[in-house]
């Protein structure tokens, strides 16, 4: 929300601007709903926490957001679509865990929020999909996969899209917290939180004596380590998230396949570019190899968006707000909003 003014000024179409506004309003209400719970049920502690929530700002040097993904810049629409696909999906999983809460006001509020997150994730998935559609159309028109030629034609090359996926995926899975956490065990056992789709699981829901596999680095290699499941509930939720988020990447690949182009987007390894938990001390490639800092430094430009990538994507961000017109780097959507046509006058300027 704090970063959407710039996005509003650089919207690739009126349709996209309309979606941005809806997300902004709904996320504002999600903040309001959480502040309401704090005020209503937690006395002075709650009021102080609510104040602190309002005082912290995205990317602020002195008073940043607690979770790093919310301090990362969202300077362009590709980042915005990646954020709403990957990071709003973190929201979905956190909300699903809280929807299982024994604290009924929290469970009810989060169930309502979940219905709105679905639309945010749709905006992200379809936004990336339309970006890819436009790129593969131009690749076929020009009969090239040459990055320089595609950039000269004003579309976002697939390797750059892959680097954006690597960045947003890795930053987002950090949000689930440390792989081993005694807080996670306490939250679960005290009934504050459940797991994703707790009701569909056939175990005893107490989990004493159950174990779960987490990753660790030993002697320069990634290994699996068995730990008590109660302490690994962050990892359980992260793994559920990863399965869910790979679905959209498969659907993006179908757009590329349909265009007859041989290029496959993939989710990076769970251990890639981690800054939280036991893997944060190691340098691990997108395919899960532990490497030295030197190798990391020499290859990182192939794995994460470079300054040059970001500057190129930023250079495409103009403002297109005439109904039915779209920026050159993105294809129109298949359908409009609320059964209105794609060229409907979605936003009135005064
Ligand atoms: Fe939200
Ligand atoms: Fe959201």
| Biggest sheet strand line-up | 1-2
Q: Write the element-wise H/E pattern from the N-terminal end onward.
A: HHHHHHHHEEHEEHH
Radius of gyration: 21 Å
Largest sheet: 2 strands, antiparallel
- What is the distance, rounded to the nearest whole angstrom, between the alpha carbons of the first and last residues? 22 Å
| Uncertain regions spanning at least 5 consecutive residues | none
| Integer average pLDDT | 96
Count of separate DSSP helical elements: 11
Ligand inventory: fe (ii) ion
Fraction of residues in H or I helices: 40-55%
Shape: globular
Q: Indicate the multimeric state.
A: single chain
Structural class category: mainly alpha
Tally of DSSP β-strands:
4
Strand content: 5-15%
Architecture overview:
With 350 residues, this protein is mostly helical. The protein is built from 11 helices and 4 strands; from the N terminus they run ααααααααββαββαα. The strands form 2 sheets. It has a two-stranded antiparallel ribbon. A hairpin with a 2-residue loop joins strand 1 and strand 2. The longest helix has 39 residues, at 104-142. It starts with a helix and ends in a 34-residue tail after the last helix. The relative contact order is 0.14. Bound molecules: fe (ii) ion (2 copies). One fe (ii) ion binds at residues 27, 88, 91, 117, 120.
